[in-house]
Design a protein that fits this description.
The chain is mostly helical and 318 residues long. Helix content is 55%, strand content 0%.
Amino acid sequence: MGHWFYRNIVEPGKLPLLLALASFVLTFLVTRTITRLIRAGRGPFRDVAPGGLHIHHVVPGVVLALLGGFGGVATSQYGAASGFCAVLFGIGAGLILDEFALIVHLDDVYWSEQGRQSVEAVALTAALLMLLLIGSSPLGVDSLTADQAENRTSFVTTVAFNFLFVLVTLAKGKLRMAVVGVLVPLVALVGALRLARPGSWWARRLYRRRPRARARAGLRAYHHDRRWDAIGRRFGDLVAGRPTDELPPAERPAAALPAGGERAGGPAGGSQPAPGQPPRGTEPEPGSEPGPGSGPGGGTEAGDGPEEGAGGSAPPRR
């Protein structure tokens, strides 16, 4: 095991990548655990809000990613410094992508349906890093023979065709397959050959006069989403927690409940009196007449004109 690790990880210079991947995944899992504890009101963790300003953890993530990125560029590929910078970069990237949805929407959608985009971004990034870690890198070859130079030409040609397949897959509305297809050409080829998703650029442009293709694409997208959306939702709930709107009222945080009530049936769950109405418990008893001075103007009954000293001034004489 040690020999394999040295030959495949240490010798090719992939140890910083492994450290960055491990710190990235671990940071995301720890961050999600802490934020779920904060939402549930458990444990010693609280939001960081100095002076009433809530600081999202994407802010320290940007700082750590910058430090690790520039430090990794300044150091060599081997040594403790490169490993330390890789860990810093992985931690910063984990904090940033955990709030990827906030960056996209420019709104605090962490516990909403849009917040699941952060989980998808983290999962996709981790998969790409693992492919880079276990895959071969032709560009890292130091010396090339004549046969290897011919293979290099073939490799460049393959990359060009793969890039074309990736563009077609993107045009067909298959973002995940396109991203994975950058490293796995077969995935990009399958995505380019299959029907486009409804609403994609390819479907709007090329399926406009092909009603059968539009119908087949819509039916295939329906069956695909019905099969995989439930699995993705369960995975998202397990890793990131359920969105606040899907939680029962008894489990929602106080800040997410409607104004006027903390919990269903609570003491503050009643409606507030309308403007101009007396508070509850101060209504006059049935059959009682309002006393003098209880009118809205400070005194007279409806239909009487304003009088001096009775809550209003007399109209000016002409």
